[in-house]
Amino acid sequence: MDMPVNVPIDNPDADTEWNDILRKHGVIPEKPPSPTPIIEEALAEARWLAHENRLEGKDLDELDELEDEEDDAFLEKYKRQRMAELSTITKSSIYGQVYPLQKPDYARDVTQASKQSFVLVLLTSSQGGNVESRLLTQLWPTMAYKFGDIKFCEIRGDMCIEGYPERNCPTILIYHNEDIIRQIVTLKELNGQRTTEKDLKQLLVDSGALKSNDHRLEREGEKNSSIKSGSANFAADDDDDWD
Predict the structure, then answer these.
(1) pLDDT, tens digit, for every residue of 89-131?
(2) Helix or strand or coil: residue 195?
(3) Are residues 125 and 177 in contact, defined by beta-carbon separation less than 8 angstroms?
(4) 51-74 burial by CB neighbour count: b if 16+ within 10 A, else e?
């Protein structure tokens, strides 16, 4: 009867000829691949992306200031790209104001309109003492003016939905392609009574209504790092929020 042999192993992770023999015969497992090449590759890719995107978010005046630092052909290509983006936004900026809603026209002015662009509906409070509702009512016109390619609408909650709870006001409904893709019931998801334009801009990015590198986000010093990338794949919140 064969007796088991105890094979001496000082350090199974050491790179020695003896360990190579043991690994070959399956006595000790193969060493896992070194993470160093993967880390170096990731760092190299990050440096490359940082270099390629170094002009991201700069307006035309800032690009002009870089004429002595950047390759002329590359800079000119980037300028044309930025001008094309500005032209697209200008052509699609067909709103630029807050649209008061009437319940009979809701399907046309909101649901159907959302096939053409994102539509945000603000359900306001019927009570003047609702601070959050008053705050959004003040911010809504500014947002509508700055982002004219997005339709901003407003209607009192109980006029839109019979018996809509006052405690749920204000409510923001975001429509796209005839569906509600996001709903915000009161401002607790944003920043409460301290909600600002920046919070609403982040909401637009998170919902897919704006890209995180949209130049309009940087006009007031808001760099890409402060407006995080988001996804449009939001499901509507639980129906319980409407009760």
Answers:
(1) 555 568 889 999 999 999 999 999 999 999 999 999 988 889 9
(2) coil
(3) no
(4) eeeebebbeeeebeeeeeeeeeee
CA–CA distances in Å: residue 25 to residues 7, 125, 135: 12, 76, 73
- Contact between 57 and 224 under an 8 Å Cβ cutoff? The reply is yes
Nearest to 96 by CA among 35, 169, 155, 146: 146
Q: What pTM was computed for the model? A: 0.59
Residue 111 CB burial class (10 angstroms; 0-12, 13-18, ≥19): middle
In whole angstroms, give the CA distance from residue 187 to residue 170: 7
Beta strands in 96-178 (DSSP E): 98-100, 119-124, 151-156, 171-176
Q: What is the pLDDT of residues 151-160, one digit of tens each?
A: 999 999 999 9
Instruction: Check if the beta carbon of residue 164 is closer than 8 Å to that of residue 133.
Output: no
Which residues on neighbouring strands pair with residue 99, listed in sequence order? 153
pLDDT range class, residue 55, cuts 50, 70, 90: low
Tokens representing residue 52 in the block: 């390629």
Contacts of 207 (CB under 8 A, 6+ apart): 118, 174, 176, 181, 182, 230, 232, 234
